[in-house]
Specification:
It contains 13 helices and 7 strands. The chain is α+β, with helices and mostly antiparallel strands and 333 residues long.
């Protein structure tokens, strides 16, 4: 006689899947904080119902179904999370006053370590960098919730159409139709989740070092040489976004609060499978949290910068609110 599964069995078997479920909920919601809440809800629902789990599917599939349902329910009462580039045309005057919109639920970056996309142990990665890159997650936010769920389950998780149909409560033909529409819409604004995200090349790493050095030294001329001709700079919660090295240079010269070398300092982090930095700004004798910056390369140059000014994200990345002030570049230790 087979023993009935217990709640202790559930905790032992399900806990290793927490990071990949967080990645799934993050793709659906575009928010780390919402995703964490929904993973907690998923585990609570599953723990309560585990003794009735009959094993007709794997535990992983069962958890994903619960998580997907929880996300779809949550999205019924929540707006999509865009980036500024998803709201309209680029701003024409970089020197014009910046406009914030704190009412918009902006897309958030996710630390690689939270979703298992870190590069320290490739054999243990449970989330591909392709599936959490910022452009892909931002594009997902353009899809209605059910289209979003179907595309993620089919194209990211590689589920069969019948499995997806059961998870989202529809028929297999309907899933195929929904997927076709979702792919068509996504192809206009995003790379495919199957397009590989390669590790940074030696040249890209050297460019990244030049970028940080130029920014910390407030060397705008060197800084803008590192961008592609159609590079994009955006910075939620500010609604404007800027395209091209000249516009980005004007933005930095006229809007950045830094006035001298050493005002800004960069701490390397990893977000969305991409190079990223926590930026600190000097205030008196300390540097205080300022923004989280996520970069996208296009060849050897930088093609996109998203600078997130929600300072609560520093807690998400496990970073302190402030640091003792670094010496100015070149000033010695």
């Amino acid at each position: 006689m087979t023993e009935k599964p217990t709640n202790e069995d559930f905790l032992r078997l399900a806990d290793p899947m927490r990071r990949e479920l967080l990645a799934h909920c993050y793709r659906m919601m575009g928010s780390v904080h919402d995703a964490e809440d929904l993973v907690q809800e998923t585990y609570l629902r599953a723990w309560r119902g585990y003794e009735g789990f009959e094993g007709r599917s794997s535990l992983r599939t069962w958890l994903y179904r619960i998580a997907t349902t929880a996300c779809l329910t949550a999205l019924d009462s929540r707006s999509r999370r865009p980036l500024p580039t998803g709201l309209g045309a680029p701003s024409e005057e970089a020197s014009a006053p910046l406009v914030q919109d704190t009412e918009v639920p902006w897309l958030e970056p996710v630390p690689d370590t939270m979703v298992g996309a870190g590069g320290d142990d490739p054999a243990a990665i449970v989330t591909s960098r392709e599936s959490i890159r910022l452009a892909f997650v931002a594009a997902l936010q353009h899809l209605p919730p059910r289209q979003r769920a179907v595309l993620i389950l089919r194209d990211v998780l590689k589920w069969k159409a019948a499995e997806v149909a059961e998870a989202v409560g529809t028929s297999t033909p309907a899933v195929n139709s929904i997927l076709q529409r979702a792919r068509a819409q996504l192809s206009q604004v995003s790379p495919s989740p199957d397009d590989p995200v390669e590790p940074l090349t030696r040249e890209q790493r050297a460019q990244l070092e030049r970028y940080v050095a130029a920014f910390e030294n407030y060397d705008v001329d060197t800084f803008v040489d590192l961008f592609t001709k159609d590079a994009v700079w955006e910075m939620p919660p500010y609604v404007g976004w800027y395209q091209g090295p000249d516009a980005i240079a004007d933005l930095v010269r006229t809007q950045c609060p830094a006035e001298r070398p050493g005002d800004l300092r960069f701490v390397p982090v990893a977000a969305n499978g991409q190079p990223a930095f926590a930026v600190y700004f000097r205030e008196g004798d300390v540097h205080r949290r300022f923004a989280i910056m996520v970069l996208t390369f296009s060849g050897a140059l930088i093609g996109h910068v998203a600078m997130f000014f929600d300072t609560h994200l520093f807690e998400t990345f496990g970073l302190p609110e402030q640091k003792d002030a670094w010496p100015a570049p070149g000033a010695g230790l």
